[in-house]
Write a structure and sequence with these properties.
By secondary structure, this protein is an alpha+beta fold. Helices cover 25% and strands 42% of the residues.
Length: 373
């Protein structure tokens, strides 16, 4: 019995010993494999920093409006007797648009003008008889009052007739006509929209912190969706004297030449206010920036040597201070120097001390034509 127990114990020791020995052998081989395994190199694209000129700008948004625009309406009520324009027609200042029926006013004017010669002669006769003592001063005053009253009545009829002819207040293009021949218009009816589109305006806002960066006559580029590839050049023509205390914004107005008449009022527009050009600045692609909770960083590449003397490229994070961005590039204020080699793409899998391999890639190049969906 004792002999059987001893054999079982010996067998257990052999089994457990073999398992432990195998695990130790396995661990040593894994350690040896990891020690001899080459350090992985991550593919990245890179760029050497060169000092460049940088023209910063302020971004703003607003709406296009005409230099002059009005909804033309009638001052007096009446029936449309004649229409003298069509939709989309170019007009000069003073051109008649519509004529309201004025037969009654014209008849009253003729009646008043017919009485004028007799009233005027009576006034002159009374004035002559006053010198001879044949009439009193009161009779002369009555004759003069009748003459002046009739003269004012005639001018009133003429003004009323003039109001019944609706004219263009300035040069411009009409919109869609809203009246028809024979229709009765109440005072203030919307006849047509008239706009002077030879020059347009853009009204936008900028923060009060940027107020010292703008001035009258400053150039800016305007972009609209209808002409997304064509910037329109304008200049700042007016700056509101007061800042809105609720929002901290100030209104700015820019004039935009519109000879080709491609801009229309009401268009949504983006403005880039051009600031003075800076020289010898560090400009890098926006794709090189890593945005994190503790700040913005860039991976800097440096050449190192391993234990065997072989050279390799190592990536290390560098904290940077950024300025404005423009067209896929960004202005670096602090953190980088001229001739630094930085990673421009492929940094997603990188960490401090990672080995990298620089490859050629055109993935960051802008296509000649952007595909449409």
């Amino acid at each position: 019995m004792k002999k059987w127990i001893a054999s079982a114990i010996l067998l257990a020791i052999l089994v457990f010993g073999s398992v432990i020995g195998f695990n130790m052998f396995k661990a040593s081989k894994i350690k040896e494999f990891l020690a001899n395994r080459p350090i992985p190199e991550f593919p990245v694209t890179s760029e050497t920093i060169k000092l460049q000129e940088w023209t910063p700008h302020l971004r703003a948004i607003g709406f296009i409006e005409p230099i002059q625009g009005v909804n033309i309406a009638n001052e007096v009520a009446g029936k449309v007797a004649r229409i003298n324009f069509e939709s989309g027609q170019k007009l000069k200042a003073g051109d008649p648009l519509i004529y309201l029926d004025s037969e009654v006013e014209v008849a009253n004017l003729k009646a008043a003008q017919g009485r004028m010669p007799a009233v005027e002669r009576n006034y002159k006769r009374m004035s002559a008889l006053l010198g001879k003592g044949s009439v009193s001063q009161g009779q002369v005053d009555d004759a003069e009052a009748e003459f002046l009253a009739l003269q004012g009545q005639i001018e009133s009829y003429q003004a009323t007739i003039s109001q019944r002819v609706i004219r263009a207040p300035f040069d411009g293009i009409t919109g869609l006509r809203n009246v028809f021949l024979g229709s009765y218009l109440t005072a203030g009816s919307n006849i047509v929209r008239l706009e002077d589109v030879s020059k347009m305006r853009l009204r936008f806002t900028v923060p009060q912190n940027d107020l010292n960066k703008i001035h009258i006559g400053q150039a800016l580029n305007i972009f609209v969706d209808a002409e997304s590839d064509t910037p329109f050049t304008g200049t700042i023509s007016a700056i509101e004297p007061a800042v809105n205390y609720q929002s901290g914004l100030i209104q700015v107005q820019a004039d935009i030449p519109n000879k080709a008449q491609k801009l229309r009022s009401g268009m949504f527009a983006k403005a880039n206010i051009i600031l003075p050009t800076l020289i010898t600045q560090i400009i890098i692609p926006e794709t090189a920036i890593n945005y994190t909770l503790y700040g913005e960083t860039v991976y800097l590449l440096s050449e190192q040597k391993n234990k065997t003397g072989d050279k390799f490229l190592q990536a290390d994070q560098r904290i940077v201070t950024l300025g404005k961005s423009k067209d896929g590039s960004i202005h670096v204020l602090e953190g980088l120097s001229e001739s630094d080699l930085i990673v421009t793409s492929g940094q997603v899998r990188l960490s401090n001390g990672a080995h990298v391999k620089v490859i050629e890639s055109d993935i960051l190049n802008k296509p000649a034509e952007i595909p449409t969906l």
